[in-house]
Amino acid sequence: MNLTRLRLPAHLPVSPLAAWVGAAISFFFLVLLLGFLPAVARDGEVIRLAIEWIPALGIDLSFRIDGLSLLFGLVISFVGLLIFVYSSAYFRGDPEATRILIVLVAFMLAMLGLVLADHLIALFVFWELTTITSFILIGTRHEDALARRNALQAILVTAGGGLCLMAAIILLGEAAGSYQLSEIITRDLTDHPHYSAILTLVLLGCLTKSALFPFHFWLPNAMAAPTPISAYLHSATMVKAGLYLLARLHPSLAGTDLWFWSLAVTGGITAVWSSIQALKQRDLKLMLAYTTVMALGTIALFLAADSGKALMAALVFLLVHALYKAALFMVVGNLDKAAGSRDWSVLKGLRRFMPWTFAAAVLAALSMAGVPPFFGFIGKEILIAASLAVPAGTFWFTGAVVVSAALMAGVAFFLMTSPFFGDRATPPKKRLSAAMVVPPLLLAALGLIAGPFASFLPITPLLQSAALSLSREAPTIELTLWHGFGPVLYISIGILLAGAALARFFVPVHRVLYHSPGKLSLTADRVYDGILHGLLSLAEVLTLVLQNGRQRFYVMTIFSTLVGLIGLTALNRSFLPPALLGGIEGIPLYQWILCAFIALSVLLIVFSHSRMLAICALGTAGTGIALFFVIFSAPDVAMTQFMTEILVVIILTLVTLRLPVFHNYAPGFGAGRIRDAAIAIASGVCVSALMLSMVHEPVDLSVSDYYGANSYTEAKGRNIVNVILVDFRAMDTLGEIVVVAIAGLACHALIKLRRYSRGQRFDARNLP
Amino acid sequence: MNSTILKAATRILMALILIFAIYMLLRGHDDPGGGFIGALITSAAFVLYKFAYGSEETRKIMVLDSRGISMLGIGCAIAAGLMSLFTGKTFLTGLWLPAYVEGRIPLPVSTVLLFDIGVYLAVTGAVLTIVLALEEDR
Amino acid sequence: MEVVLCILTGLIVACAIYLMLDRNLVKFLFGLVLMSNAANLILFSAGRLTLNSPAFIEAGETLPPEHVANALPQALILTAIVISFGLLAFSLVLSYRAYQEIGSVDMDELGGNTSLSLDADTDERAVNNTIRAEL
Known about the structure:
The structure holds 3 protein chains of 3 kinds.
Chain A: H1 17-42, E1 47-54, E2 59-65, H2 67-90, H3 97-116, H4 120-138, H5 145-176, H6 181-184, H7 195-209, H8 218-221, H9 227-236, H10 241-248, H11 250-253, H12 257-280, H13 284-304, H14 308-339, H15 355-369, H16 375-389, H17 394-417, H18 434-450, H19 459-470, H20 487-504, H21 506-514, H22 524-546, H23 551-572, H24 578-581, H25 589-607, H26 611-631, H27 635-656, H28 671-696, H29 702-710, H30 720-728, H31 730-752
Antiparallel strand pairs in A: 1-2
Helix pairs in contact in A: 1-2, 1-3, 1-19, 2-3, 2-9, 2-14, 2-18, 2-19, 3-4, 4-5, 5-7, 7-10, 9-13, 9-14, 12-13, 12-17, 13-14, 13-17, 14-15, 14-16, 14-18, 14-19, 15-17, 15-18, 16-17, 16-20, 17-20, 23-28, 25-26, 26-27, 30-31
Chain B: H1 4-27, H2 35-53, H3 55-61, H4 66-86, H5 98-101, H6 111-136
Helix pairs in contact in B: 1-2, 2-3, 2-6, 4-6
Chain C: H1 2-20, H2 25-46, H3 71-102, H4 107-110, H5 122-134
């Protein structure tokens, strides 16, 4: 047998193992979560699991499975499963595949943790994990500068929001008295004094994460990631995290005008604006990205309302969107892989060559357009019905829904026709494997099945229990295709007709929009760039000013700050109680002499022009201080001070005699020296004032008394100072002798261990 | 520095200072003194010797290299701390020889004393390392 | 006496800072020594001054006398003295080595790289500029 024939040819790489591992993990979670479905959806139970995590801080890893988290968890694991299957083919032969897929698995776990977590801190950790994994995944093609820039933009925007969220979480936890979501959602915080701060911060966190206006700009840029990543993170799951949190906190935070209007305005603007943007795109993937932003806006819009109907509408649309949008992304990925382009003006007539992808595209797009009997139709009907029933701002709600839905229908019809019809002479370059066709087809088919069978499948009870997590009065809405004749049906038909017309005249509309002179010069993307530039320039200036490498400047900065801070405090408090100055009386003469001796020695150091004189003066000053310790009952300290003073004089002499003579680099007493003297005197005055106010305060001797009382009885020592050093606080002393020993070693190393010869300037290149 | 008087005096002074240093070290628990002071006095003695005889000679009379001394000191201090672990107490808890507790010997033989000796050796070694390194860099 | 000590310490601090602001590295080191002395005095005054009553327990007693000196700041200062000796020794050696390498003890010659710039991100900036142009 010819063994060489067994070798795999180079052009047929094995499919990445990591994809199947990821698929197995997501399948496991899917089955696990489906197991909870009967209890949660039918019986309305809330399942709680808790593991101690950081008991010292009262943080435990607790999970809460109710309708809302189960809905999200099922979407994450189910779409995840299909995405991993799809990736096994999509990343075939990609040298980076394993790395990408491992991060993708990490993302999925973090995302599941986010929606299932019950403790706010745990939720935040998972939240940030999704941000980081998203950053890595957007920057997958990191050799491309644009991908790097977009990844950076995504992480700066979302992590900036994350910081706000952290503040919000702390405020929320303190306001509610608990960090457990199960506790928080039972409380109504709308009357809390910090309510508006909490809401603003939560909104900042959620709007950035979910790419809502005015933070919508990062999501289309995030399309730099490979298509399966975009489909999963930036359409089906991660961008929904912000919406999840808004929904989660709905019971405690919603119901105020602030909540209603901030979300309604943001959501409405996002939905309409991004629908128009979608028409301007040539890249199908970018088009889908903008429709995703539109869907996020729509869901946010309906989360604004307080009625059970509107919340139900938001959740239904969320599920609808997850089903069709991931499928469409995969369709675009297939087009890209097979035909080598995502530009709709290039892609033509692929219907004959890619029939299954075409089928998936049609099924998904019909659901997106909201054509009966698809699930999307139910979703759109309920949106319209809810928008008509909104108590305030009906016009705004209905207008936003109708305009964006009509534009979406147009985009959907265009997506399912343009690339697939028309003439194409040459077949696409590559053939697609089943793993790339089945997942989108399955998802899209589910959108078809869920429509007519919504009442029979567990979808309805699941959505209802999810809505119940948001609001206490969730109505039982029947998810049926036929609601009878009425304004809802007429609007729905109108939307479809408008969509069909738009699709028919898509190219001219696109051209008008694309070349429209109304191109805004101030886009959010530019604002982001401007802010980033400003920050970088500021950092550069600050670094140049503060970190200029001049020691004198550092000393000056430090002590000027000290003077400034103490001075500011002094303005608010009264220093120098006059009674204290009376304490000068009755000081014996020898103490005056000692103080004068120390003061003179110190002044001599400053004004001497000779090194030796200065060293001697340093020695006498130190000895004077040692005497001071002797007088004031500190013999041990005095001896230590005296001995170190001797050694200091010795090593100072050893070193300074080898340094050049006391050259005065700033001769005379110029402006520079006057400034230095001013800083020095001001600092001295501040220190004196601080000390005076300190000795004026009563002293707390409890620790010292404890040591004194236990020195002999516990530690069998009569010298309390020594007992503190070697027994009570021996751990500190151990640390200190280690520091001293290291200082000795460092001196030795500096002087003795030189790899390069004397006189040669230091150069890092000479080091081994 | 080459002074006969200094050399001659150093021999006697050195012995006296070292004895005094050990005395200061051992009495430290009850009277003024202790590891830090003893160490500084010892260093001063060796510095004096160095001035009289030079650093080569000083290195010869030191049994161990100065860096070794400081490491030995840290070792002693850690060992003193570890002993209490064997009796089930926390790190660095003091333990005394029963003979001292009952008053039969004057010297407080204990892990606390070992710790103080560790401090003494570590500081002596560090100071001598610095001074000798500076002196030898010509 | 506390009042006088406070003023004396202020004087030492002022002299130490004035020396630390000198362009001569050697004077900076002198300032460092004075500064650690001043810090010790501040610590000492925080524990208040006590005349003629060191923190010892008399033979035969198990408790210290009534108004004994505060032992805690003394223990802190004792270690601080030794530590600051280590710090001084290290800075001395460092200055000495810097002098050997650079040949000056003028602070303004030793440091101060004003040509510091953040060139690493020029690549990213170019990208941002092209993106802006495309928009």
